[in-house]
């Protein structure tokens, strides 16, 4: 009986160790897992699969993602950086537009991570989009005064 319990414990530990090796490994897999976490509002996994170091920095890219349907296209890998063409179809009859941008990844400690800041810049239209966003905010502030 003791031998059976010992074997059961060894088997359970082995299964746990092996299952830890099956996390997302490729840029495409990490991208899919990361965006599924964003769509599910799972801050823990969003941080785990990105370059964020703390959950307090996660803001969902200042966007609402509920109901959006992701699809991924061309993947480019150059040494320790990768990019994945990302498209999110807006929910039907929502009045929202589809979102198209690039998800950027970096290789850290032999693991691919979504480059949160660079992807956020891409979502907001790149450098020009950020500039126009700040100009729009400045205009809103001036209008309120």
What does this structure look like?
- The protein has 145 residues and is α+β, with helices and mostly antiparallel strands.
- Helix content is 45%, strand content 23%.
- It has five helices and four strands; from the N terminus they run H-H-H-E-E-E-E-H-H.
- It has helices spanning 2-20, 27-39, 43-48, 116-123, 126-144; strands at 69-78, 81-89, 99-108, 111-114.
- A four-stranded antiparallel beta sheet has the order 1-2-3-4, with helices on both faces.
- Helix 4 (116-123) packs across helix 5 (126-144).
- The model is unreliable at 15-20 (pLDDT under 50).
Question: TL;DR?
Answer:
The protein is α+β, with helices and mostly antiparallel strands and 145 residues long.
Order of strands in the sheet with the most strands?
1-2-3-4
Specify the structural class: alpha+beta
Number of helices: 5
Nearest-integer average pLDDT: 84
Strand content: 15-25%
Strand and helix order? HHHEEEEHH
The stretches of 5 or more residues where confidence is low (pLDDT under 50) are 15-20
Tell me the radius of gyration.
Answer: 20 Å
* Helix share bin: 40-55%
Give the arrangement of secondary structure elements.
Layout: H1 2-20, H2 27-39, H3 43-48, E1 69-78, E2 81-89, E3 99-108, E4 111-114, H4 116-123, H5 126-144
Antiparallel strand pairs: 1-2, 2-3, 3-4
Helix pairs in contact: 4-5
């Amino acid at each position: 009986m003791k031998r059976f319990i010992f074997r059961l414990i060894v088997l359970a530990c082995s299964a746990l160790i092996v299952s830890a090796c099956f996390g997302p490994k490729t840029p495409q897999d990490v991208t899919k897992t990361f965006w599924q976490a964003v769509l599910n509002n799972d801050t823990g996994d969003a941080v785990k699969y990105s370059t964020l170091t703390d959950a307090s920095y996660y803001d969902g890219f200042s966007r609402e993602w509920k109901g959006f349907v992701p699809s991924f296209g061309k993947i480019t890998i150059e040494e320790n950086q990768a990019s994945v063409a990302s498209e999110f179809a807006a929910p039907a009859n929502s009045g929202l537009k589809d979102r198209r941008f690039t998800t950027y990844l970096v290789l850290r400690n032999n693991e691919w991570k979504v480059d949160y800041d660079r992807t956020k810049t891409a979502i907001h239209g790149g450098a020009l989009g950020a500039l126009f966003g700040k100009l729009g905010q400045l205009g809103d502030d001036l209008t309120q005064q």
